[in-house]
Amino acid sequence: MIILGIDPGLAIVGFGVVEYKASHFKTLGYGALTTPAHTPIEDRLCMIRKGMLELIERYRPDEMAIEELFFNTNITTGIQVAQARGVLLLTAREAGLNIAEYTPLQVKQSVVGYGRADKKQVISMVQMILNLNHVPKLDDTADALAIAICHGHTGGSGLRNYYNLK
């Protein structure tokens, strides 16, 4: 199964693509889709859609795993991320991908074994699980890879049904 992990955002959409086969991961690619600040939001959303379509065309994933939203203190940023996330979900569904959503707690639990793990622990485990020579430059990219790993661990097991994931 080829999994496209997505860490949604408006300025930066982290992505990680892994193949999960016989309980082993193979990294196919990772990086970020970026949109320039001070660009109208509708143009940024179009850029995200175009970038997502290119990722789907390049990697031909079977499934997409995406992080659920949680609102911190800035509601305006949260709304913009929610709009970008909607574009990502729509684009994936139109491409026929199965979609699973995970909370940050579920991702940390799956990757590190502890739901309250810090960012450094998650990044370290992502590097180890995927046997990467270096840490991905952006946290968003490492998060997207962690989301893909989480889906690999739960997507083919009864845990997916247990959590009622889509």
Task: Summarize the main sheet.
Answer: 5 strands, mixed
Structural class: alpha/beta
Q: Helical content, roughly?
A: 40-55%
If you average the pLDDT, what whole number results?
A: 91
Supply the number of helical segments. 6
Outline:
This protein has 166 residues and is α/β, with parallel strands linked by helices. It contains 6 helices and 5 strands; from the N terminus they run βββαβαβαααα. Strands 3-2-1-4-5 form a 5-stranded mixed β-sheet.
Overall description:
By secondary structure, the protein is of the alpha/beta class. It contains 6 helices and 5 strands. A 5-stranded mixed beta sheet has the order 3-2-1-4-5. α1 runs parallel beside α2, α3 packs across α5 and α4 packs across α5. It is globular and about 40 Å long. 38% of the residues are buried.
Topology of helices and strands:
Layout: E1 2-7, E2 12-21, E3 24-34, H1 41-59, E4 63-67, H2 75-94, E5 98-102, H3 104-111, H4 119-130, H5 139-155, H6 158-162
Helix pairs in contact: 1-2, 3-5, 4-5
